[in-house]
Amino acid sequence: MYRYDEFDADMVSSRVEQFKAQVERRLSGALSEAEFRPLRLMNGLYLQLHAYMLRVAVPYGTLNSTQMRKLAELADKYDRGYGHITTRQNVQFNWPELTDVPDMLKELASVEMHAIQTSGNCIRNVTSDPYAGAIADEIEDPRPTCEILRQWSTLHPEFAFLPRKFKIAVIASKKDRALIRAHDIGLEIIENDAGDIGYRVYVGGGLGRTPVIGQVLRDFLPRVELLPYLEATLRIYNRYGRRDNKYKARIKILVQETGIEDFRKQVEAEYAELVPLDIAVSPEEVERITQYFSPPDYKDLEDVEVKSDDPAFARWLKHNVLENKTPGYSIVNISLKPKDRAPGDVTSEQMRIAADLADEFSFSEIRTTHQQNLVLPYVETQELENIYKKLVGAKMSEGNIGLISDIICCPGMDFCSLATARSIPVSQAIAERFWDPERQAVIGEMQIKISGCINACGHHHVGHIGILGLEKAGVEFYQVKIGGDPSENTALGQITGPGFSQEELIDGIERMVDHYIEIREDEERFIDTVRRAGVETFKEVLYVDA
Amino acid sequence: MSSAKHKGKGPQSLTANTLRDGLSVWLTAEFDWSMKYSEALITEDDKIIEKMESIGEESERANDVVAPYFIDVEAESGLPVRYREKFRVRGPSYDTATLVPLDIQKV
User: Fold this and answer.
1) If you average pLDDT over every residue of chain A, what do you get?
2) Which helix (H) or strand (E) holds A214?
3) In chain A, what residues touch B2 (CB-CB under 8 Å)?
């Protein structure tokens, strides 16, 4: 993985010192809250419902074991002993004190981490496929591209005050595991007919209060043109994006209002004005950065088949383990979705165990996923049982990846100052209702996503079943969407109708799931049946009591 | 409604977050700040509300609290009217911190 050079280290350290001085000036009163707020946000520090919240960047979801241990240390030393994996692969601490944050940032800098640009109207942390570099279906490891984008976008002076935040995701497989078409810019690394590697560029995707699926801006962008072309795109957005209304300020609205054809013309015209190779990354530099992501020192192994009579281990093998592209190795998903906890929350003890497992079994590397789980990407297949046993002891052994209890869920009203309703208890209630592992296996792949407000951090628009928490006259209620899809077949769910209480909601979901099992054909997944049979038939069972 | 200036209806309470740790606080009858809502000063008296407002402004200038604002309070229950404010009083209904031994937590 990428290691800081002298410039990176100096930049992050000087930023820590800068923020330390800003906090001191705020505490002394030299800075008012109005003056301090944008400064703290630029360093990932929010003031939430009950306390401050620090969001730490995990570039493209890649961590080493030392970094994970540092996060565990920060959780204990400055917080309440746990962290939260977000839907953009970052880590949040829910209870830090303002006076501690400069020290937290200093400690993060010591392991090449920071919280820069995890908030604010700038280019945010670049996200990617959590299996990058390990999965067989990729054209190449997408992380060198992510790293080039990280270096380009970090403290980019022209894009520090965009009309609104800007999110980029990169994949290198036909299978989309990073939701690229729900990003302001989504990049798919592809190979053209001539055998050249480049990018398909999507623009104008996003969730939030106005969900939009990104459209193709360029069908094939040569690799060397990446940064100049994105620079041109960002310039058009920066120039014409609406600053008069924050709810219409994202690039998706600009693209919608301009039309993709005219928007493309504007970008191409701007691009034509640039000196093409001015900021282009040379092949030599791409090669240098790519070297940091060289495959680990794999042993020369044969593929082995692991079987077990233990049903829990067998389930874990089936749902949580994938083949690594190297024979004899596997990719292990660690579920952070036990029945009775908040999705994505991980205690400091569990972080240390994950770090130990990474050291012992995965070349010290860990990934965070936008599905709010962890991944060990490079595990010897013959060690799977050993890992599983250790995960059982750490209460991280649920074999439920991709199943109905593997729910994406934002912090909701329990923590977030923007939320309108709670989401964590809803996710716990769904997990409780469907916890029987045999039943989960029968239901098969199911993506339930819950947001506690219309900002949609819980990705409810693209859930097979999406749930939006709202509140009226002091009572929480939940709207349901059906038919969303976060995969390469990206689709937005359809709103079914009036909302439900939490109890009614869980019953309604159960009726829809039972209905799916009743009418599904062959190996159809829930989403396939919804597509074939239509949303109406599910609405009928959802509202049967209404 | 909630406002830094009193514009609400019925009984009022003044709330804020502390600057140093960000925790929710409410102004007490002693015109001090408490993390316990049960100690909050709740009143409809315009003169007292005026004083609360000036204490809030003073506390903000003194960098003790951030962005104080008035909240409407239900006369019967004594709880805040707005759902969000009820949650600030109750705290999270679920917090993973409950699974972590207290002796290793900072906060």
Assistant:
1) 96
2) none
3) none
Taking CB atoms and an 8 Å cutoff, what residues of chain A touch B95?
Answer: 80, 94, 414
Domain residues for the domain of A98 are 6-110
Residue of B nearest to A31 (CA): B63
Nearest to B22 among A52, A413, A414 (CB): A52
The rounded distance, in Å, linking the Cα atoms of A440 and A437 is 5
Contacts A–B by Cβ distance under 8 A: 111
Domain CATH number, residue A500: 3.30.413.10
Confirm if A182 and A196 have CB atoms less than 8 A apart. no
Residue A34: other Cβ atoms inside 10 A: 8
Write out pLDDT tens, residues B19-49: 999 999 999 999 999 999 999 999 999 999 9
Residue B34 CA to residue A13 CA, distance in Å, equals 37
- In angstroms, the CA A123 to CA A88 distance is 13
- Reported ipTM: the value is 0.93
- Among the candidates A69, A92, A110, a domain finishes at A110
Beta carbons of B106 and A76 less than 8 Å apart: yes
Same domain, A242 and A362: no
Say which range, A67-71, A146-150, B6-10, has the weakest mean pLDDT. Answer: B6-10
A321 and A279, same structural domain?
Answer: no
